[in-house]
Specification:
Blueprint (H helix, E strand, L loop, with lengths): L3 H7 L2 E6 L4 E3 L2 E5 L3 E7 L2 E9 L4 H11 L2 E11 L3 E10 L7 H15 L1
Helix pairs in contact: 2-3
Length: 117
Amino acid sequence: METLEEQVAKRTVESIKFVKKTQFHEDDSHGCQYPEIEARILDKDVLIRIHCQTNKGCISSIINEVEKLHLSVINSNVFPFGQAALDITIVARMESGFSMTLNDLVKTLRQGLLMFM
């Protein structure tokens, strides 16, 4: 029988972080803030952290985007960060149809989020 320490030592954690800072356009004095997304995988669990602008209905849209990727949301936390930003943490479990790399997961989430931000 393996000890808990031996079991934990055998686990591998894969993580990726996609960060794109504010970009300014000549015709836009406010700039365009893109979401910062970080994801980690441990066994069948996925930890997703998103830092984004506050938009009406954005939390439900983000949860929907995660669930479209064959991930079941187990827990989510949302914290305001300043007056116009949110820090969102989502813990999800891979469903049988999940077959993405971590890099593809972050890219797909980012594309989905940009559609409603």
